[in-house]
Write a structure and sequence with these properties.
This protein has 14 helices and no strands. It has 329 residues and is mainly α. The chain has a single domain, classed as ABC transporter involved in vitamin B12 uptake, BtuC (Orthogonal Bundle). The radius of gyration is 20 Å and the shape is globular. The mean pLDDT is 84.
């Protein structure tokens, strides 16, 4: 009973913390906004309203969506491969998205189609990550071993990465600069125009992950145990890979690669709740991931020239991964 009360308290506090961090993120930046005026308690000038509604609110919502999506994707990958260091990009989704963006960026700048770079990059990233995902799924039908599937995913990612490096070698400086900026990861590239599509992709992926709670719990004790519970392991593996691709590919397409969140957050959730039950760790990962990326965005905005959010998230995530390795010896 006490454990249940503690877990209820945790989820209540996590929701409140998310709301508080959302408010702080809206206030933080080169121009600090009064929290009272942000909450609508006073008159604000047009400049403040423009900064709040057109810049900071979309960025904060993207941080919540991206943090939740990457954390859930990382949790599912760690369960599927039974590897504590598995992350949402382990199957080459990020490399496929990078390949698509690199191709569009190089071609657009070369052909002077720069107005189409933004939407073209999003479409290309989705197509690139989907192509790698379909290749992994095709191989998964012939490979029954999860370790072999993991290696295949890494190899596809390496091939895509090599093609990206080849394009960079022949790219002109302007195209190379645009691509490197995308690889740094950014929450500011999504405005209200793109928000419905990104939110739809992420929410669809999160809903699908909630439907996989029982199979994920079955996989915790191995595939043989899951089969004993009547779970179709092959179908479950396909659904997990598809859902992970939807979440990680969708976020990468709009925000670029964001490091370490998907690897670190599941361990934080399991450590706080002291359980691996996905009925608890999955929603906890959503909340903690959203909170962590909001914190990263707040810290990034404190500098005169805002840091890429992926840089700040790496400073959070890398020590956690080192701790995991040292703890497991």
């Amino acid at each position: 009973m006490q454990i249940m009360k503690n877990r209820t308290l945790f989820f209540s506090c996590a929701v409140v913390l998310t709301l508080v961090l959302l408010l702080l993120d809206l206030c933080s930046g080169s121009l600090f906004l009064n929290p009272f005026s942000v909450l609508g308690g006073g008159q604000s000038d047009p400049v403040t309203e423009t900064i709040l509604w057109n810049l900071r609110l979309p960025k904060a919502l993207v941080a919540i969506l991206a943090g939740a999506a990457l954390s859930v994707a990382g949790l599912m990958m760690q369960t599927l491969f039974r590897n504590p260091l598995a992350g949402p990009y382990i199957l080459g989704v990020s490399s496929g998205a990078s390949l698509g963006v690199a191709f569009v960026t190089m071609c657009s700048v070369m052909l002077a189609w720069t107005p189409f770079v933004h939407m073209g990059s999003i479409a290309a990233a989705i197509l690139g990550s989907t192509a790698v995902l379909l290749l992994v799924l095709a191989v998964s039908r012939r490979v029954q071993n999860n370790v072999s599937l993991l290696i295949v995913g890494l190899m596809f990612g390496s091939i895509a990465g090599a093609l990206v490096n080849l394009m960079q070698n022949f790219a002109n400086p302007d195209a190379l600069k645009l691509f490197i900026v995308w690889t740094l990861g950014s929450l500011e590239s999504v405005g209200w125009t793109d928000m419905p599509l990104m939110a739809g992709i992420v929410l669809l992926g999160l809903a699908a992950s909630l439907l996989l709670l029982k199979p994920l719990n079955g996989l915790l004790l191995g595939e043989d145990y899951a089969r004993g519970l009547g779970i179709n392991v092959s179908c479950t593996r396909t659904l997990i890979v598809l859902t992970t691709g939807l979440l990680a590919g969708g976020v990468t397409a709009f925000c670029g690669p964001i490091a370490f969140v998907g690897v670190a957050v599941p361990h934080i959730a399991r450590g706080i709740l002291r359980t691996s039950n996905h009925r608890l760790t999955l929603p906890a990962s959503m909340l903690i991931g959203a909170d962590l990326l909001l914190v990263c965005d707040i810290l990034a905005s404190l500098f005169t020239y805002p840091l890429p959010v992926s840089t700040v998230s790496a400073l959070f995530g890398a020590p956690i991964i080192i701790w995991i390795i040292l703890k497991r010896k």
